Amino acid sequence: MQVSVETTSALERQMTITVPAERIENDVDKRVQQTARTVRLDGFRPGKVPLKVVKQRYGAGIRQDVIGEVIQQSFYEAVQQEKITPAGGPQIDLKNDKDGEDFQFTATFEVYPEIELADYSSVEIEKATSDVKDEDLEQMIETLRKQQAEWNETDSAAAEGDRVKINFEGFIDGEAFEGGKAEGHDLVLGSNSMIPGFEDGLNGAKAGDDVELNVTFPEEYHAENLKGKAAVFKVKVQSVSTPTLPELNEELFSKFGLEATDLESFKVEVRSNMEREMKNALKMKLKDQVFTKLVEINGIEVPSALVGSEIDNLRKQAVQQFGGGANIDFNMLPKEMFEDQAKRRVTVGLLVQEVIKTNDIKADDERVRTTIEEMAQTYQEPKEVIDWYYSNEDMLNQVKSLVLEDQVVDQLLASAKVTEVAVAYEEAIKPAQQQNDEA
To answer: What are the boundaries of the signal sequence (predicted)?
Structure first.
């Protein structure tokens, strides 16, 4: 077998492989003999069909099967021989597959980039710190009470904190626009779930009122065709309801799956949950910042095959997230929606692996155990969860991967210029993307 490799771009390689004719013909002959032992043809006893007849009848199909196997085998042998690691499957083009002549094909594929990590010591990182203050705890308890509020219709004018049931339709330049209409929509005033000005315009409205709202869509609105547009919403108020908050008692505590039987133990459990949520949020934002800087200082080119594969993963996740399951083909979602996110994920993954390799980092068993124990604490039977992780190799490997990422973050932080910044609890738990949008 002869192999030649051509570099066609930074990451693309074109490999030409020539396989001796004898190998093809020998494999075809062996397959014909195997077929002759099992094939049934009228006029011949089983196993007695002449090889010539079998070759005439089945030879073309057998040859195609052999060629397919030879391509797979010889490509694998060739990349091993040339010490090349493909980043995705090859595109195969046949150059010569005539009987009696050497078989030749080209395989075009991408390879992983060669990475030389940039010095991380010049990177500046802001590490946010926070704690749960008493006022944060009281605010959370009020939020939990509001989640369990009973709503009672009233003839009074709507005020902040009240819930209105409305029908509405939006117009731009006198024309109704897609997605701007709803009926029987429940809206809590002050929740900021609608665009600026919408909820404020319903303060003072009563059941049966018709209200016209003049609002402007934000410049950063998710729908491109509505960004910055002035709109008029015609709203019909069906009802106004005021909330009645539940008492802080054992009945309420049980609704949140907590074991507390009195207010003090309830506060302890709520604070513990808040601290765990805050710790995880700060950890995720710090990791995101560290990896963002890692990408910024290491301008690497990534294989399009890996990006394409990650785009498909993200599309599948999006379908599952919105409850589509097997009923929706993920291919219906445009690739462009996920391209930037996929490229960043692939880039981070390659750089993280390089940090691991360069520093010979291995998952710390104690950290793996601690991580699993922390995850198990959110379940009623922690020991069963811990045992399950350690009996499930796939799940255990997922935890090890998370721990490895944490160790990479520690490695990078050790060489970076880190400044601690104290932030409020609400700021601490806010998702990183939301913070970036508001900056």
So the answer is: none
Q: For residue 288, what are its two tokens? A: 């995101």
Residue 308: how many CA atoms within 13 Å on its side-chain side? 7
Domains delineated in the chain: 2-110 (3.30.70.1050), 124-131+252-438 (1.10.3120.10), 149-244 (3.10.50.40)
108: left (phi over 0), alpha (psi -120 to 50) or beta: beta
**pLDDT 10s digit of each residue in the chain, 439 long?**
899 999 999 999 999 999 999 998 888 888 878 777 777 777 676 766 777 777 777 778 888 888 999 999 999 999 999 999 999 999 999 998 888 889 999 999 999 999 999 999 999 999 999 999 999 999 999 999 999 999 999 999 999 999 999 999 999 999 999 889 999 999 999 999 999 999 999 999 999 999 999 999 999 888 888 999 999 999 999 999 999 999 999 999 988 888 788 999 999 999 999 999 999 999 999 999 999 999 999 989 999 999 999 999 999 888 887 765 556 777 778 888 899 999 999 999 999 999 999 999 999 999 999 999 999 988 888 999 999 999 999 999 999 999 999 999 999 999 999 999 999 999 999 886 554 444 3
